[in-house]
């Protein structure tokens, strides 16, 4: 598929719509999420199916039984250069979706990852009108990236549409996606430990984060709301074909413990990004786990 400048865009379309409870950047890009009320704690578990796609106006499209998303660049996406992305949401008749429900303080969450999941970005496009969202973003290197649009049409269930896109420029060295030997990491002067109630697929798993000061080892009990909750978790399978967006069990918690419940759809390697806010700073903590 060609964009407006004639540059080839390679992609694979997937769709997912789902429900359950319940977003940094191993090389983090900033998130501009706000604060506020809590939402329901339902998890969006993606069971993707391959869909055809077609280009319109220099973009590319993903489709579900009910909705389609067309991703369009104002110019070819190139590493290190800010570019404007437009996301057009339409219904199965091709008409623009006019209204969206607020989902954790935003109308649309956009998750961007690269092929080896070393890059993660969670941003929030602005809604214009007639189903159109726009956002400026920058990719750190060339290569394949997956765009995941997570939204709720008014009065309907949550929808997730995603596509792989090709970004021009020199590609970085890929890194292997391997399970972490320790589920304790330090980020922004905080020590974050993750524990799983079990590591089995198709069973409910409680993810428990414990957040403390890295030097004093004192638990941090004054976490601030991030997008209306104590934290958010995004999970992707190693091939990025399974996507799970998890919200906390107790959204009003302020730490040092934050719990999330989810179900892994199949065995394999998964990368988990937890996002929390403290003293006005959003921290993203990535872990890689193996599920049996």
Structure description:
This protein starts with 12 loop residues before the first strand and ends with a strand. Strands 3-1-12-11-7-8 form a six-stranded antiparallel β-sheet, with no helix packed on it. Strands 2-17-16-19-20 form a five-stranded antiparallel β-sheet, with no helix packed on it. With 292 residues, it is mainly beta. Strand 9 and strand 10 form a beta hairpin. The protein has strands spanning 13-16, 44-45, 49-50, 59-63, 67-73, 83-91, 108-114, 120-123, 126-127, 132-137, 143-151, 159-167, 184-187, 190-196, 204-213, 232-237, 243-246, 257-263, 268-278, 281-291. The chain has no helices and 20 strands.
Characterize the overall form.
globular
Class computed from helices, strands and strand pairing: mainly beta
Major beta sheet, strand line-up: 3-1-12-11-7-8
In DSSP terms (H or I, runs of 4 or more residues), the helix count works out at 0
Q: Helix fraction?
A: under 10%
Can you count the beta strands? 20
The main sheet comes to: 6 strands, antiparallel
Strand content: 35-45%
- Averaged pLDDT: 83
Question: Can you summarize this structure?
Answer:
By secondary structure, this protein is mostly beta strands. The chain is 0% helix and 43% strand. The protein has a six-stranded antiparallel sheet, with no helix packed on it.
Layout of helices and strands, plus pairs?
Blueprint: E1 13-16, E2 44-45, E3 49-50, E4 59-63, E5 67-73, E6 83-91, E7 108-114, E8 120-123, E9 126-127, E10 132-137, E11 143-151, E12 159-167, E13 184-187, E14 190-196, E15 204-213, E16 232-237, E17 243-246, E18 257-263, E19 268-278, E20 281-291
Antiparallel strand pairs: 1-3, 1-12, 2-17, 4-5, 5-6, 6-10, 7-8, 7-11, 9-10, 11-12, 13-14, 14-15, 15-18, 16-17, 16-19, 19-20
């Amino acid at each position: 598929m060609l964009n407006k400048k004639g540059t080839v865009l390679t992609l694979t379309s997937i769709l997912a719509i789902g429900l359950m409870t319940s977003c940094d950047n191993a090389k983090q890009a900033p998130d501009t999420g706000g604060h506020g009320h809590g939402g329901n704690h339902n998890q969006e578990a993606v069971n993707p199916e391959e869909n055809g796609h077609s280009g319109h106006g220099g973009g590319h499209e993903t489709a579900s039984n009910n909705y389609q998303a067309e991703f369009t660049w104002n110019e070819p996406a190139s590493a290190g250069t800010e570019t404007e992305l437009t996301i057009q949401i339409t219904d199965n008749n091709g008409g623009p979706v006019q209204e969206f429900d607020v989902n954790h303080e935003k109308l649309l969450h956009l998750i961007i990852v690269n092929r080896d999941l070393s890059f993660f970005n969670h941003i929030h496009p602005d809604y214009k009108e007639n189903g159109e969202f726009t956002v400026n973003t920058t990719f750190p290197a060339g290569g394949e990236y997956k765009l995941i649009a997570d939204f709720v049409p008014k009065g309907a269930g949550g929808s997730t549409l995603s596509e792989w896109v090709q970004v021009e420029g020199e590609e970085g060295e890929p890194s292997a996606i391997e399970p972490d030997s320790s589920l304790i990491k330090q980020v922004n002067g905080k020590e974050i430990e993750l524990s799983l109630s079990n590591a089995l697929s198709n069973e409910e798993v409680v993810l428990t984060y414990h957040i403390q000061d890295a030097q004093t080892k004192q638990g941090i009990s004054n976490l601030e709301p991030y997008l209306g909750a104590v934290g958010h978790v995004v999970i992707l399978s190693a091939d990025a074909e399974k996507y799970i967006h998890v919200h906390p069990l107790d959204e009003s918690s302020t730490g040092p413990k934050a719990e999330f419940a989810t179900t892994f759809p199949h065995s394999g390697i998964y990368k988990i990004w937890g996002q929390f806010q403290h003293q006005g700073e959003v921290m993203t903590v990535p872990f890689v786990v193996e599920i049996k």
